[in-house]
Design goal:
The protein is an alpha+beta fold and 76 residues long. The protein has a single domain, classed as K homology (KH) domain (GMP Synthetase, Chain A, domain 3, 2-Layer Sandwich), CATH 3.30.300.20. The protein is 42% helix and 26% strand. It is built from 3 helices and 3 strands, in the order H-E-E-H-H-E. The protein has a 3-stranded mixed beta sheet. A hairpin with a 2-residue loop joins strand 1 and strand 2. The longest helix is centred in the last third of the chain and has 16 residues. The protein is globular and about 35 Å long.
C-alpha cells in the first residue's frame, strides 16, 4: 500500500524526490501520512479536495483487498 501511494503521489507532483510516506499502525487501521514539497500541496489536494479524495478511495480499495482499513493524511 505504501509503495502504491508513493507511486501515485510522485506522478502528481513537480518535485517527486520530496515525496515521503510515513506509515503508522493504530488499533485496526493503518494511517499513511503523505508529505510533499510546499508548492505541490495544491496538486495533491486538488480542486475542492477531489484529488485527495480520489487518493483516499484508491488507498481504501487496495487496503480492502488485504482485509485492512487505511487512512490518508496529507501533511501541510
Amino acid at each position: 500500500m505504501q509503495e502504491f501511494l508513493e507511486f501515485v503521489a510522485r506522478r502528481l507532483v513537480e518535485q517527486p524526490d520530496n515525496v515521503t510516506v510515513h506509515r503508522e499502525t493504530k488499533e485496526e487501521k493503518i494511517v499513511f501520512r503523505l508529505e510533499v514539497a510546499e508548492p505541490d500541496i495544491g496538486k495533491v489536494i486538488g480542486r475542492n479536495g477531489r484529488t485527495a479524495q480520489a487518493l483516499r478511495v484508491l488507498l481504501a480499495a487496495v487496503a480492502a483487498r488485504e482485509g485492512k482499513r487505511a487512512i490518508l493524511e496529507i501533511a501541510d
